[in-house]
Amino acid sequence: MAEKIRFGLIGCGLMGKEFASACARWFHLGAGLPRPEIMAVCDVNKDNTLWFTQNVPTVTNAFTDYRELLKQDSLDAVYAAVPHFLHEEIYTAVIEAGKHLLGEKPFGMDRKQNAAILAALQRRPEVFARCTGEYPYFPGAQRVIERFRSGRLGTIMEVRSGIRHASDLDPRKPINWKRVAKFNGEYGCMGDLGAHTHHIPLRLGFAPHNVRAVLQNITKTRPDGKGGVVPCDTWDNATLLCECGAPGEAFPMLLETKRMSPGSTSDWFIEIYGTEASARFSSADPAAFHYCVNNVWSRELIGQKTMLPSITGGTFEFGFGDALLQMYGAFVAELSGADVPFGLMTPEETGRSHALLTAALRSHETGSAAEIE
Q1: What pTM did the predictor assign?
Q2: Are 373 and 359 in contact (CB under 8 A)?
Q3: E strand spans, 181-228
Q4: Which of 43, 152, 195, 227 has the fewest Cβ atoms surrounding its Cβ within 10 A?
Q5: In this prediction, what percent of the chain has a pLDDT beyond 90?
Q6: What domains does the chain contain, in order, with CATH numbers?
């Protein structure tokens, strides 16, 4: 196993900085994994790269054109943290350059772009690629996964997964690219947040075959930040009701992606209800795992029972930064050939996610359930 993996970073915004922070505390993991080092960064805004050249000692090159970064033979992998409308162009370029790819959600702005990315991966099978998603790495979420895989839940009756936050609740908040369809895509909030709700259900085999979608564009205009008002043409909230399972044994799966959820900060949850037992976790109660046996719910504090071992004592609480470190660790571990109990979303799973979201748009347009093709 290599001692380090040399990364290029395309997109020097929030998630790029989070990755740099995770790399800086890599020693916090006790899994014996190769160390990721960010060697080169790129952003169309040169000022955004300054934070990296000033704070990340391993960065030796900064570019404003991602093509120049991809010419660097010294790089093993690329983390592309760019807006949705750039996914197809940049992800396929990374793949064609023979660099391993860690990409942001939704792995293509729409189903056509996702298919193009997956086709590029088929042409370059030596390239390893995964899609980000940190929430499954909370210990409580891992406990839900383990409880389901143990078979102790019995026959599954219902699944619920979602993410609710209030980042756009204030109608006076100036517009950004995520609120403009030509940059964010027709999916709206589902594109940015949907993979969060799909990752665990798809991995556990809860394959929906139809969907009934209710989409809401609640705030139709927003300030432009320059004293004017502009159209806000993306979906704020989405509620999807899916049917999973074989005929005669079907069960409902409810998926929520909401940017306008009163009282929320960033509440991600997974709930699985069975005939013998049930299990649920919410990041609003990050220290606990909830389970139900004999019709009685119990709350168990779980501390630092992480998928990848860390140096933190087991009695201490787990946080968002820890989840990100586990997520990046999972990518490095899989890339290095190590066994990972629960890996990041695969390219194939992103394709199934896009099929669901495309059907959701069709369902909302027709006002009826849509088959997932």
Answers
A1: 0.96
A2: yes
A3: 208-216, 221-223
A4: 227
A5: 97
A6: 4-131 (3.40.50.720), 135-307+346-371 (3.30.360.10)
